[in-house]
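Contributing new records

If you add data, match the layout below exactly. Sequence lines come first and carry their own label; structure lines follow with theirs. Keep one chain per record. Anything else will be rejected by the validation script.
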Amino acid sequence: MPLRPTTFFYLGIFPLLMLIWAWVDSVKSHTHWAYQRTLHHGLVFELSESRLAFRSVTRTPDNTAPLPNHLPWYGNFNRFGSMQTRADGTPVPVFPMPMHDELRPWYPKGFDYRVATIPMWLIIAGYLALWLGISWRRARRGQRLRQEYLLATT
C-alpha cells in the first residue's frame, strides 16, 4: 500500500487547496504587489489571467525620467476585481501557456521592461508531482523499514 495517508500527505493538502484557490481567484480578479528597489529599478509580482507574472522595470542609463507612475511603487497589495474578460472582450484562458516578453509597445522609451509568466496549472502540476512523489517515496521507505524490522525480530 504505497500511498497510504501519512502526516506528510495530509500536510500537503492545505498548500494544494491554496494553489487551487489562487488559480480560481486569478481568473476572476487581478492581484499585484509592486516594489521599487531603487530610483532606477522596480519589481511587480502579479496574479491574473490564470498566471503568476514577474515583471521587472529598469530605467536605462541614458534616461533621467523616474519610473512610470502608472504602477503604484509602494510595497502593499492591490486588488482589482471582475476580470473575467480581457480588454478586447475575449474570456480569460483557464490553461494559458508560459510566456516571456522583453518589450511592450505601449511602454515609455528609456525603460528596460521584462516579464515572465508561469501558468497556475503548471505550478499546481509541479506541486502535485513533487508532493505525491515525496509521499510515495516516504511510504515505500516506511514499508521497507517495517519489513526489515519484522525480519530482524523474527
